[in-house]
């Protein structure tokens, strides 16, 4: 639980790692008592001050005791501290909302979909809970007395129950879907398509030659491949970038480079340079709750930055394939024309569908970039410049891109009177940022 990209395999507990306290995550679990709720709430200041220290210790011990887990953790998020920060934020958010679990519905859905894409199961939750309690005890010392630990054990068990039920429902739906499965399925790269200088689209076809399931536009799959420089397997989520078909999935992957303390995108580099056509890799079922409302007839405004356009192209193609007059505004921000992926496809869709309008922002204008053909505005995305075009009655707004980009666009929309429940964003990283 709490982990956007974490999966814990079935492991035998090790006494040096686990606090000796039993967890129950079944329907027979006793509910939190009012006293336990108050104790958990009383720890909120400690979580604010020491939360990252607790979660950092938790991960350190987990990987020391179980080095095989390095095969399934996103090492970049460990190196930058993003994973411990995400977990610390989630623990704090739960404590803050412990009397109103309904407020966690969105977070449980988002994280639950990520968990399902990694095959997390109910019997893995107690291992995480015991590890967290051990870290809480060590960091907080005498302040984490028996009452505090008992309260947090009960609280963890209750929240784990929410996740277990949610994820079990997802697994049932996946296996009931024609062509669906649970866990990992072997695929091979059947085609690679260059999309500008930085992005390659991969067609992923099942090695068993079976059909692939229909998915909702905006969803993602987890892909797991071997990273030679780490000597381990690594998972990564990628949005599906085309409309469903029965033969293959399409993901579009940006080659990433080292930036400050963040290492280069190892998985993206392996996909770009290390896996030729024909190479095999593990793929999950499509999951994710950032999805287009395909039954709506009101306008859709699709706002993307960089490689964030991948789910937007799936949404856009879905709408035009429906053959309805539904209005679409496609807003995209990118550095320049050389890295503007799927530019020609977008131009074709717009030329053939008069109800689709675009607003493309280039930060840099190259010598071959033509305004009105390749791009529309110079500079970073500024929704205020296109307010009359983009802020429409009853429209839904879908945003995907870097976190700072999404936050900026959401803030702009709200400042122009757009209701928060009309704004939908895909978040692959820490919810604390």
From TrEMBL:
Report which reactions are catalysed by this protein: 2 nitric oxide + NADPH + 2 O2 = 2 nitrate + NADP(+) + H(+); 2 nitric oxide + NADH + 2 O2 = 2 nitrate + NAD(+) + H(+)
Keyword Nucleotide-binding listed = no
Q: What class of enzyme is it?
A: oxidoreductase
Question: Which stretches are transmembrane?
Answer: none
Under Pfam families, the record lists: Globin, NAD_binding_1
What PROSITE patterns does the annotation carry? FAD_FR (PS51384), GLOBIN (PS01033)
Keyword Transmembrane helix applies: no
Task: Name the cofactor(s) required for activity, per the record.
Answer: FAD; heme b
The alphabetized list of GO BP terms reads: cellular response to nitrosative stress; nitric oxide catabolic process; response to toxic substance
UniProt domain Globin: residue ranges: 31-168
Q: Which GO terms describe its molecular function?
A: FAD binding; heme binding; metal ion binding; nitric oxide dioxygenase NAD(P)H activity; oxygen binding
Q: Which UniProt keywords apply?
A: Detoxification, FAD, Flavoprotein, Heme, Iron, Metal-binding, NAD, NADP, Oxidoreductase
Location of the FAD-binding FR-type domain:
182-293
> EC?
1.14.12.17
Among InterPro entries, the record links this protein to: FAD-bd_FR_type (IPR017927), Flavoprot_Pyr_Nucl_cyt_Rdtase (IPR001709), FNR_nucleotide-bd (IPR039261), Globin (IPR000971), Globin-like_sf (IPR009050), Globin/Proto (IPR012292), OxRdtase_FAD/NAD-bd (IPR001433), Riboflavin_synthase-like_b-brl (IPR017938)
Query: Per the similarity annotation, which family is this?
Result: In the C-terminal section; belongs to the flavoprotein pyridine nucleotide cytochrome reductase family.
NCBIfam families from the UniProt entry:
PRK13289.1
Instruction: Quote the function comment for this protein.
Output: In the presence of oxygen and NADH, it has NADH oxidase activity, which leads to the generation of superoxide and H(2)O(2). Under anaerobic conditions, it also exhibits nitric oxide reductase and FAD reductase activities. However, all these reactions are much lower than NOD activity.
Q: What is this protein called?
A: nitric oxide dioxygenase
Q: Which species is listed as the source?
A: Aspergillus bertholletiae
């Amino acid at each position: 639980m709490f982990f956007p990209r974490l999966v814990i395999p079935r492991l035998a507990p090790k006494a040096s790692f686990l606090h000796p306290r039993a967890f129950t995550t079944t329907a027979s679990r006793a509910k939190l008592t009012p006293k336990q709720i108050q104790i958990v709430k009383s720890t909120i200041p400690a979580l604010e001050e020491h939360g990252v220290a607790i979660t950092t210790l938790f991960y350190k011990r987990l990987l020391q005791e179980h080095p095989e887990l390095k095969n399934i953790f996103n090492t970049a998020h460990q190196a930058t501290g993003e994973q411990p920060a995400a977990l610390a934020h989630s623990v704090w958010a739960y404590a803050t909302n412990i009397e109103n679990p309904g407020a966690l519905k969105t977070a449980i859905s988002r994280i639950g979909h990520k968990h399902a894409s990694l095959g997390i199961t109910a019997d893995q939750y107690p291992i995480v809970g015991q590890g967290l309690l051990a870290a809480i005890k060590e960091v907080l010392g005498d302040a984490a007395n028996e009452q505090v630990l008992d309260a947090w054990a009960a609280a963890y068990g209750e929240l784990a129950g929410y996740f277990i039920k949610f994820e079990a429902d997802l697994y049932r739906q996946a296996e009931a879907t024609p062509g669906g499965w649970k866990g990992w399925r072997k695929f091979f790269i059947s085609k690679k398509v260059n999309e500008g200088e930085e992005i390659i689209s991969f067609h992923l076809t099942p090695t068993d030659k079976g059909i692939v399931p229909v998915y909702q536009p905006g969803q993602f799959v987890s892909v797991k491949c071997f990273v030679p420089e780490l000597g381990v397997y690594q998972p990564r989520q990628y949005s599906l970038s085309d409309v469903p078909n029965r033969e293959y999935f399409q993901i579009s992957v940006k080659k990433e480079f080292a930036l400050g303390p963040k290492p280069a995108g190892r998985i993206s580099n392996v996909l770009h340079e290390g896996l030729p056509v024909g190479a095999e890799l593990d793929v999950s079922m499509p999951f994710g709750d950032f999805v287009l409302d395909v039954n709506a007839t009101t306008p859709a405004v699709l706002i993307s930055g960089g490689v964030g356009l991948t789910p937007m192209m799936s949404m856009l193609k879905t709408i035009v394939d429906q053959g309805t007059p539904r209005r679409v505004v496609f807003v995209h921000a990118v550095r320049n024309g050389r890295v503007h992926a799927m530019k020609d496809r977008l131009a074709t869709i717009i030329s053939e569908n008069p109800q689709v309008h675009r607003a493309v922002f280039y930060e840099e204008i190259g010598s071959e970039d033509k305004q009105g053909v390749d791009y529309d505005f110079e500079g970073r995305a500024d929704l205020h410049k296109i307010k009359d075009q983009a802020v429409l009655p009853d429209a839904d707004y879908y945003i995907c891109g870097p976190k700072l980009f999404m936050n900026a666009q959401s803030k702009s929309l709200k400042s122009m009177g757009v209701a928060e429940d009309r704004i939908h964003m895909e978040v692959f990283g820490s919810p604390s940022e």
